[in-house]
Amino acid sequence: MFIQVQETPNPLTLKFLPGEPVLGPGRGTMDFTSVSAAKRSPLALQLFRVDGVKSIFFGEDFITVTKADEETDWAVMKPEIFATIMDFLQTGKAIVNDGEVPDGPMDTMIHPEDDDTVAMIKELLESRVKPMVQEDGGDIIYKGFHDGIVHLKLKGSCTGCPSSLVTLKSGIKNMLQFYVPEVVDVIEVKDEEDLVIESALEKMEKNFSGTPD
């Protein structure tokens, strides 16, 4: 088995391609931002045992690994990540637990109650934006359209990536506005889990630095 590795726009993230399906075609993506979340996947749990791993992301045929900080050396981490992925895949076990594999990209599924504007936004995100973003080891999740503003959540290599906000504000916003004049702006949103994790990390940093709350 030969596992390819690709750099992403995010210097803290690498994309690993094992040469075989991870989630498989049409299944969407899965984001594991904590050990608790990784309980849905035996492989994700094992990857979290690699020192320095902050989060794991699965796509159709790739695995994205994000490290904790710039000081953590990829040269030390990569051999262990390679070995973990290779050893697991050779067992033939399911990468994700039964019932946990997504049926597809639910966020861009068009529902009967969606008006023409929302349906067009979802179609553009699914057909034009997601393939481009997933090529870089990440994903963008549609979270809503309110008062002319498209709400998107960044995942995988997009999370915390300096260039992602530029892509969000220039590329994606301009493309959506070209086809959907009703779009005024595009913003990043975070869910409750993201805020909890960020708060915990901030507390850890303060504890290490000795800074009082």
Describe the 3D structure:
The chain has 213 residues and is α+β, with helices and mostly antiparallel strands. It has two domains: 4-91, Scaffold protein Nfu/NifU, N-terminal domain (Ribosomal Protein S8, Chain: A, domain 1, 2-Layer Sandwich), CATH 3.30.1370.70; 116-192, GMP Synthetase, Chain A, domain 3. It is 38% helix and 21% strand. It is built from five helices and eight strands; from the N terminus they run E-E-E-H-E-E-H-H-E-E-H-E-H. The protein has helices at 42-47, 74-91, 116-135, 162-179, 192-209; strands spanning 4-7, 13-17, 30-32, 53-58, 63-67, 138-146, 149-156, 185-188. The chain has a five-stranded antiparallel β-sheet, with helices on one face. Helix 4 links the parallel strand 7 and strand 8 (185-188). The longest helix is centred in the middle third of the chain and has 20 residues, at 116-135. The radius of gyration is 18 Å and the shape is globular. The termini are far apart. The mean pLDDT is 84. GO terms for molecular function: iron ion binding; iron-sulfur cluster binding. Belongs to the NifU family. This is NFU1 iron-sulfur cluster scaffold homolog, mitochondrial. InterPro entries: FSCA_dom_sf (IPR034904), Nfu/NifU_N (IPR014824), Nfu/NifU_N_sf (IPR036498), NFU1-like (IPR035433), NIF_FeS_clus_asmbl_NifU_C (IPR001075). One of its GO terms (cellular component) is mitochondrion.
* Rg on CA atoms, Å: 18 Å
Secondary-structure content class: alpha+beta
Our count of domains comes out at: 2
CATH homology superfamily of the largest domain: Scaffold protein Nfu/NifU, N-terminal domain
CATH topology of the largest domain: Ribosomal Protein S8, Chain: A, domain 1
CATH class of the largest domain: Alpha Beta
Helix content estimate: 25-40%
Principal-axis shape: globular
Mean pLDDT: 84
Strand order of the largest sheet: 1-2-5-4-3
